[in-house]
Automatic annotation (TrEMBL):
The chain crosses the membrane at residues 14-31, 37-57. Keywords: Membrane, Transmembrane, Transmembrane helix. This is DUF58 domain-containing protein. It comes from Zunongwangia atlantica 22II14-10F7. The lineage of its organism: Bacteria, Pseudomonadati, Bacteroidota, Flavobacteriia, Flavobacteriales. PANTHER family: BLL2464 PROTEIN, SLR2013 PROTEIN. Residues 204-370 form the DUF58 domain. It comes from the Bacteria.
Length: 443
């Protein structure tokens, strides 16, 4: 009986009808002729309510399920599918209330539908997570009404479901498609003209029209008495590491995502491209000390290991120790490698403290320092000041913006490759830099 009462709800139509009948009873005090008619209406309403309730409880009613993907992609729209089967012999008016994970902070989810008898009804909605981790969906509540709409019953499905939110594999697949399809110029990516040759020798062959005359092997030419050229092939399986700073500087949020999440999404997309280019990829995360090291590998299964490693990375609000990073790189990375360092510097003094370590790392490896423009400051620079205070703020913002450019030039002056980028353009610019370095044969 308790379960019956908990699942039964009276609708607004019923209460409006009761309110109207109450008003009619009030008027019957002056117009006595309508008094018996009102009682008839009340009896009819009561009978209709009983019929409505019986109809709603006469069969299994509705069956529903929530279908979640195996994992969600961070910062991307992910689809959630709801399937409802109507086992009633009449059309049902359904209200769907899904209890979304607490991370979305959304408590007004409501979807309404008219479902025909014996129909399998299906709809989808999208959610966009902005944090990695476990997301728990609560109950799936379905409220069913008949055509009378005097009462409705609630049925609960999927008591609890959990889905993990991983770094943006949707972005990774998109960029992977563009690279494989040789359309790097699309979506902000650009083609890099190959300069010169790599140093991996393949064979000596006879010269044919179109061969680069700079590759002529004069000793072989003299021996065979015909022009012979050296043929080279791209060097492959070169070690490439994504190094992610997880210190407090990476907690800064832009457009809903922290700099750390932008770096993680970019690392996954970049690692996928590097693996497709037959390079070996690895990953390091650090703050006050080195937290995780994933040794480089050229196997495609490495991508899944990188994704699992990136899934649990979080900031610890400590000062990043580049000295510890330098010691760790010397210890664990023995071959000359391409190191893509994701970090951030807001003031030249911060860069000055770490510059000796960056220069030392760059002596043994090809180091690319990737840091971020402050897009909020950029917005302030493009706004029109309305008073003296706003003009002063704009002047300070200009200084901060110029400091970023100066820091990039300072790194380049010491021979360190640099990427200064807006957070949302991080993946594109990082891949561009990697392709440029490959084209120039720096690794």
């Amino acid at each position: 009986m308790i379960n019956f009462l908990k699942s039964l709800y009276l609708t607004k139509r019923f209460f409006y009808s009761i309110a109207a009948i109450t008003v009619l009873f009030l008027f019957s005090f002056w117009i006595t002729a309508i008094y018996p008619i009102i009682w008839v209406i009340l009896v009819i309403l009561s009978i209709a309510l009983i019929i409505d309730i019986i109809a709603l409880y006469q069969s299994k009613g509705l069956n529903a399920q929530r279908i979640l993907p195996e994992k969600f992609s961070n910062s991307d729209a992910n689809s959630v599918k709801i399937q409802i089967k109507n086992d009633y012999s009449f059309k049902v008016f359904a209200e769907v209330i899904d209890e979304l994970p607490i991370q979305f902070q959304k408590r007004d989810f409501l979807y309404t539908a008219e479902i025909k008898p014996a129909e399998n009804f299906e709809f989808e909605y999208e959610v966009t997570p902005l944090e990695r981790g476990e997301y728990i969906f609560g109950r799936l509540n379905i409220y069913a009404q008949s055509i009378l709409k005097l009462a409705k019953i609630r049925k609960v499905f999927n008591a609890e479901q959990m889905v993990k939110v991983y770094p943006s594999f949707i972005q990774m697949k998109k960029l992977n498609f563009l690279a494989i399809d040789n359309r790097i110029s699309q979506a902000g990516l650009k083609k890099i003209r190959r300069l010169g040759h790599t140093m991996e020798f393949e064979q000596i062959k006879e010269y044919v029209t179109g061969d680069d005359v700079r590759t002529i092997n004069w000793k072989a030419t003299a021996k065979h008495r015909s022009l012979m050229v050296n043929q080279f092939q791209d060097e492959k399986a070169q070690p490439v590491y994504s190094i992610i700073d997880t210190g407090r500087v990476m907690k800064m949020p832009f457009e809903g995502l922290s700099l750390l999440d932008y770096a993680i999404n970019s690392s996954l997309a970049f690692s996928n491209i590097a693996l497709r280019k037959k390079d070996k990829t690895g990953m390091i995360s650090f703050s006050a000390k080195i937290d995780k090291i994933l040794k480089d590998s050229s196997r495609m299964s490495q991508l899944q290991r990188i994704m699992e490693s990136l899934y649990n990375i979080s900031t610890d609000f400590k000062e990043s120790d580049f000295g510890s990073l330098y010691a760790g790189i010397n210890r664990f990375i023995t071959h000359r490698s391409l190191l893509m360092l994701y970090t951030n510097f807001e003031h030249p003094s911060a860069l000055e403290r770490q510059l000796p370590y960056l220069k030392a790392i760059n002596k043994r490896h090809v180091l690319v320092v990737i840091f971020f423009e402050n897009t909020e400051i950029t917005k302030l620079l493009h706004s029109t000041p309305e008073n003296l205070s706003e003009s002063a703020h704009q002047g300070i913002a200009e200084e901060f913006s110029q400091n970023k450019v100066k820091m990039a030039k300072e790194l380049q002056r010491h021979g360190i490759q640099t990427v200064l980028t807006r957070p949302k353009d991080l993946s594109i610019n990082t891949i561009n830099k990697y392709l440029e370095i490959k084209a120039r044969g720096l690794i």
